[in-house]
Automatic annotation (TrEMBL), chains A, B:
Disordered, as annotated region: 360-379
Domain AMP-binding enzyme C-terminal residue range list: 450-525
PANTHER family from the UniProt entry: LONG-CHAIN-FATTY-ACID--COA LIGASE, MEDIUM-CHAIN-FATTY-ACID--COA LIGASE
Name of this chain's protein: Long-chain fatty acid--CoA ligase
InterPro entries the record matches: AMP-bd_C (IPR025110), AMP-bd_C_sf (IPR045851), AMP-binding_CS (IPR020845), AMP-dep_synth/lig_dom (IPR000873), ANL_N_sf (IPR042099), ATP-dep_AMP-bd_enzyme (IPR050237)
Organism: Streptomyces uncialis
Domain AMP-dependent synthetase/ligase: 31-395
Domain of life: Bacteria
Keywords attached to this entry: Ligase
GO molecular function annotation: ligase activity, forming carbon-sulfur bonds
Length: 545, 545
């Protein structure tokens, strides 16, 4: 068979020719969105590559960063940079400024392509970016703050204008780096994940398989998930493979504009994290609109509350759960119920799982003793995955070498996801906890999340966070911290009895603490690190039952 | 990213676990077909591999041949042989006996797995098979003829019984040979095409993409196309990737049983060459049955007559054209109309083309002067293709080295398909002729098939074959040989005038010959070699207009 490398330039060329009339639609906030055909994107991508090489001197393996919303120009950068042999580094505009500076310096970005609307974020950082030589500005936004900055400044449209609209893309090694993305890293420095041409190509094929996303050129995908976040879940690449139209919200991510673009452009698919859909649901409740075009809504990044799924069902929007992470490109699972369950009472139970693995992802659960757990829907373990679009290492340690920390990669090279859960006999994953939060008690695992959910089902419990604390006899035991409603009458014994009906007896916490509020991270998740530290420092008033 | 090789064993493992309850249904001619779950196929595949290695001594790279119908055991061989590192050689039971002997010796098959019902075909050949050490017999059929044959004889079920039902499949190089298939070769010896694990894996992913076949575990695929023919168009591999149920007709390929299995098992997809569907249509006309479950019928191997497509439309069966060849694994094109054409008058015009190329197949047309032709729907050229599941060479010349004949592979490694046609601006291929039959006249090409179709549209013309003959001025010119109906009054001048309204003037033949019948090949195609020879030998009575 021919030894044809799997390259991003092949995806681009295919989309721009075979599906030349498909469109990238960018929302502008005006009456009519901006429309650009795949053929035009193909031409402008070639122009951008010529500009980067001939005008900006970008060489193989140089990092070209983007600080951009989801829009047509960002799609052009997605294809131009890797196709010419350089590496696309998508900067996460939600990162704290000091982390943005850290990752841009760590990646040694030579060029940053930035949306005009994001200059207020970028300009103050420029003095701290040690390797950036060029800033390319695209789209609306005041440029005045750029006066006197150190890097050379270019206007995107002027830079690419008049250059050749085709390109003889180089035949690269398919294992060469194509793109990189840093994990947000709640602990320690952000970690860089490097995607190869091969991994992006195979991931795109998988996304297009009927068991995954399964769209065609009859579809339009509303990509709410940001392009700076795991390649927008691979959608820009996948869509060029099969002519799926792209609907890009640019900076208009508020529920109002989203509802408006769904009603007017009638996308058949959308992808976003649950919080976006929570907001959209509130908007649709306040101002009903027709969103029934959305036959498939991929929700990932966090579990979708079942109530939200049901609410969207009644609106004619069909939610499909997916699980993945930056290290998994991200497609790890998709919750399409088995054919036999469709239309039965079991269907919903399958839809609220994380889903089942595609052919490119192998999975195993490692139990408390390190042994592989059976797929019986009951035995819990930390999920480990393997496959051609799963990270093997993180980018560049101090000496530039790949990093394979033992808490992230198993001795035989599988990725440790840090997620704990079960897998059913037919391969459906249910995640119950984070590995760092699970309570390791006497060789068995207790899910902190299960205890929390059970506790929060009590009418007088406002919030409950359960963490592991050291225990002489069992290694670890659960500590329950509880926020009670005003005027609540329940005491810890009452809550323990309430719990006893819902979880196994050996899982019941002995240690209880009443708190005014559960400490939270910047994104609103329970900050269990803080609770564990409060306990260790004696800062909690603990009752032992 | 992890360097995980794309192996057939991964497809098997995925199907047997994630889709363990999907089924391979084999028709038996009895009231109830035989059903075997993917999980059971997985176990029996492991048992077969253990048997081949431990009992028959099959080593890496050894060729294991099959002479089998489409059935569950053939699927087991499909997975066991490549997964263990050996090479599956599917023997085409329609080949003339001397060619079967030639290919089995050329491939140096060590083992043949044969269906009992095919022993009458195999046993007489055994004395001529120089490398075959073992014959494994599966399924019903009289074994008595095997008494006294030279190779050791094994019963399939006895051979695999009691062996371990799992296997630690080796981590092979994905570019290693997995399977081979010989082209039937109308001229010269058959040519062996060798598929790699990588090519099979990528082809399977493509088959499952929504723009190609796009099925899920809710589907059942009736695989009429034989497993000895280009891996049954890749269906057994593709179905294990996504849990599609397989319906296998075994030896029951007659229209009656096919209609019966469609009505009773309600497959949603089927794949076969047009002649099968012609027969089925006649059967359904004689004895109507409900075949409306067939939402998608893939027709390839030859163009499907538009009238046949329309006839099936009215029965609720939806035909989808596909083009490919042994050298292309075979998926080369699929005729799904562009979304914008669906429901319009243009839709049918797209459906009768060969279709458009999937992301893994790059295509170009080489015109009469060797230059690449534009995709304008009018400029004709020989189709050349490139991609990771396209052959780079043929198997084993005299010294064992790969063969790259210049008439089959371009100087830069693309496959010359031998098909001539046009490609539209949106990538739809329309084939008009075979390269060897096209008439090269003064630097332009004249399609013999177009002239024939135009001539046969005349009410008094029964058959017409047009071939290229040497011409001093133009290089080549068309010679029309015509069979007229009894009592016909048309003369050549009349026919030429009739043609003039349908093709360009410079394409009109000057040379005409009346014949009693057009010579045909064993499969009923016009044998143009014979006509060209008759003309060269002066054996035709030619009128010059």
């Amino acid at each position: 068979m021919q030894d044809v490398p799997l390259l991003i330039s092949r995806i681009l060329r295919h989309g721009a020719t075979i599906y030349g009339s498909s469109q990238v639609i960018t929302w502008t906030g005006e009456a009519e969105p901006h429309r650009r055909s795949f053929a035009e994107v193909g031409e402008r991508t070639a122009q951008l590559a010529h500009a980067l090489r001939d005008e900006l001197g970008v060489q193989d393996d140089d990092r070209v960063a983007t600080l951009m919303w989801n829009n047509a120009e960002h799609v052009e950068a997605y294809f131009a940079v890797p196709s010419m042999g350089a590496v696309l580094h998508t900067l996460n505009l939600r990162l704290p400024p000091e982390q943005l500076v850290w990752v841009a310096n760590h990646a040694a970005d030579r060029v940053i392509i930035v949306n005009g609307s994001l200059l207020p974020l970028l300009v103050p950082l420029l003095p701290h970016l040690k390797t950036v030589e060029h800033v390319v500005v695209s789209g609306p936004g005041d440029r005045s703050a750029l006066a006197g900055v150190a890097p050379r400044v270019h206007e995107y449209e002027e830079l690419i204008a008049g250059r050749p609209a085709d390109c003889d893309w180089p035949e690269l090694d398919e294992r060469q780096a194509a793109a990189m993305c840093y994990t947000s890293g709640t602990t320690g420095d952000p970690k860089g994940v490097v995607y190869s041409h091969r991994s992006v190509y195979l991931h795109s094929m998988q996304m297009n398989m009927a068991q995954s996303m399964g769209l065609t050129d009859a579809d339009t995908s509303l990509v709410v998930v940001p392009q700076f976040h795991v390649n927008a879940w691979g959608l820009p690449h996948a869509t060029f493979m099969t002519g799926i139209n792209l609907l890009m919200p640019d900076r208009f991510l508020q529920p109002g504009p989203l509802a408006e673009m769904i009603e007017s452009e009638r996308p058949t698919h959308a992808a976003a994290v649950p919080t976006i859909w929570q907001g959209l649901l509130a908007e649709l409740t306040a101002r009903p609109r027709d969103v029934s075009s959305l036959a498939q809504v991929t929700i990932g990044g966090a579990a979708c509350p079942p109530a939200l799924m049901e609410a969207f069902d009644t609106l004619g929007m069909r939610v499909c759960h997916a699980w993945g992470m930056t290290e998994t490109s991200p497609l790890g699972t998709t919750a399409r119920p088995p054919a036999a369950a469709v239309g039965t009472d079991e269907e919903f139970a399958y839809r609220v799982t994380q889903g089942r693995f595609p052919s490119g992802v192998e999975a195993r659960l490692r139990g408390p003793d390190g042994r592989t757990q059976p797929w019986d829907g009951a035995s819990a373990g930390e999920l480990e995955v393997r496959g051609p679009w799963i990270a093997a290492a993180y980018y560049g340690g101090p000496g530039g070498e790949p990093q394979r920390p033992a808490d992230k990669f198993s001795e035989d090279g599988w990725l440790k996801t840090g997620d704990v859960g079960t897998i059913s006999h037919d391969g459906f994953l249910t995640l119950t906890d984070r590995a760092k939060d699970v309570i390791k008690s006497g060789g068995e695992w207790i899910s902190s999340v299960e205890l929390e959910n059970a506790l929060m089902a009590h009418p007088e419990v406002v919030e409950a966070a359960v963490v592991a604390v050291p225990d002489d006899k069992w290694g670890e035991r659960p500590l329950a911290t509880v926020v009670l409603a005003e005027g609540a009458t329940a005491d810890f014994e009452t809550l323990r009895v309430f719990l006893a009906g819902k979880v196994a007896k050996w899982q019941l916490p002995e240690r209880w603490s009443l708190v005014a509020a559960v400490p939270k991270t910047s994104v609103g998740k329970f900050d269990k690190k803080v609770i564990r530290k409060q306990y260790a420092d004696g800062g909690l008033d603990v009752t032992q039952l």
